[in-house]
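Changelog entry: the ATP-grasp domain-containing protein record was regenerated in this release. Current contents:
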Amino acid sequence: MKKILLYEYLSGNGDADRYADRYADRCVSAELRMQGSAMRDAVARDLARSGHVALTCVAGHDEAHDATDTALAIDWCPAPFAIPPSRFLAAEARRHDAVWVIAPETDGVLSTLCEAVEPSRWIGCDAATLHIASSKRRTARYLALAGIATPRAWSVEAPLEVACNASAWVVKPDDGAGAVDTLLFHDYRMAEYVFLRRVAAREHVTLEEWISGDALSLSLLCTRGHAELLGINRQHIGIYDGQVAYEGLTANAVSLSSEKASAFRSLAARVARALPGLAGFVGIDLVWHPQRGPVVIEINPRVTCAYPALADLLDTNIAASVVAEHFGLGDDFKRRRYAA
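Regenerated structure tokens:
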């Protein structure tokens, strides 16, 4: 029986004040917190059903949970007060066999939490890979070296040439999530002006071509340079007065037996080889361009919003599979959803 702590950063009040201040004018912190709770609860259900985990989940300050959930054998502990999440995790890690953290890459949050936990107890991507995937520009450079298509982006050394790039451009946080602060421009000069102003204001932003096509995401189970394709999801993206908005997804919208699935499996394998530190549940956001095929927008090195929907659709117990790979348990660990 493995003792695992499951901590979701936003629902666990990891940095609610900073998120509320940063995004107050868009009222997204509450939405992100609900998404965080949904991801945490889905992973918790799968782990509890595996029958091989003594699970402790961290509950937010305003959440009501019994100390022990007898229906699913989950112990709940309150989120920490007045101490940083990193200190909380460092202490809790010593009391558990492993720690599974769900947190945004924004502002280096996920990387900081990873550094607080001994590598052997950390479930998920390693620190070096989190450093790469936490930056859209770093991710694009690594993938480009592996011959994987990514959007062309502005840099001081190579400003974009309007004539040979896209008909639209996007300015967005280099470490952002959920399309927050993401703006679309059809006038390149205006896009570059906004980009340079935000850079001058010390924002970490990127300016890149807008890729037209089907917005999709891949859900993967990764381990040591290999990737298993779990689902191909359709992302719903809206644009309102130039503001790009993430409006949810449809899980398994593209069949794993379709022609495109073969291309996506090949892409997933190439990404996993390019970033062998990817581990556990990983998401790839991409656009299927009519001429270029799949263009990778970003890699999410953690549980994503697709997990709850996929968990309801797949027969495989995803979380149990992640834990089995982490501990090297193989067939000794039951991976069917209703094993318990």
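The longest helix spans residues 29-50.
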